[in-house]
Amino acid sequence: xxxxxxxxxxxxxxxxxxxxxxxxxxxxxxxxxxxxxxxxxxxxxxxxxxxxxxxxxxxxxxxxxxxxxxxxxxxxxxxxxxxxxxxxxxxxxxxxxxxxxxxxxxxxxxxxxxxxxxxxxxxxxxxxxxxxxxxxxxxxxxxxxxxxxxxxxxxxxxxxxxxxxxxxxxxxxxxxxxxxxxxxxxxxxxxxxxxxxxxxxxxxxxxxxxxxxxxxxxxxxxxxxxxxxxxxxxxxxxxxxxxxxxxxxxxxxxxxxxxxxxxxxxxxxxxxxxxxxxxxxxxxxxxxxxxxxxxxxxxxxxxxxxxxxxxxxxxxxxxxxxxxxxxxxxxxxxxxxxxxxxxxx
Length: 345
What we know:
Helix content is 27%, strand content 23%. By secondary structure, it is an alpha/beta fold.
């Protein structure tokens, strides 16, 4: 099969013919229909993610068509499915309690397992998969990837965002944009923060009540003033120190900070304003991924039109363009995300 292979950090991905994947007993092999390009992939490409090594195939936000199913898998050839990026074992204590995102034996394509920037991908633990609704295009399904699902679980399963509450979103990449769209669908009043004027204008056009430029003054103080005391929930969607502290400082007493941005490599350890956390008695939630059993509730919101996630996907690209998309993460990016839909070019 054709695949994009990481041969050296920060170097162009190598387009190669590699061995087809092997189907595991409890898994399936998918023909990849689409796969997203995520900032997490960039962390691996630059050498900051501990599980990404030269020789790996990236890609963790995918959907596909089953072409082979193992004897323990419930799926059949021809089924079209969406894959969560955390493939939970289903048997450990965390899985049995429903907390599959903290599975002790989890596997993640592109981060330890072969990823989906390829014509085919092997998916173990296929009980995690969800059928792809006919109304959802493969590109949009892949666009849900780790960004919409993680945002949804962070807002609802972790911070318990309520209608009428103020939600601040720091960073309007794929995760931040997802938080904006989902926050509005859940009835929240949303403020976004970024440094790219084009992305701020895009957020306003999508209904953000306020869009603040982080280069222009103390945005945490501005949010406190605009909301009459601070946001109820604030999401950090970049994984860097400046936005993490702005997120904490913009909250009202008893507010909830949600850490969605990935702190890894040089950002893994930060200086955090613990005084703000202590004096305002804040809650801090880490969140990563979404349990597979929650997919139907999110897909129901999309299928019934309660939330339109189509603005997430800005463009579809070929596999040969993946390196250029990764390079773009070195600086401020344009609104929306890219999804690979052509694996032959």
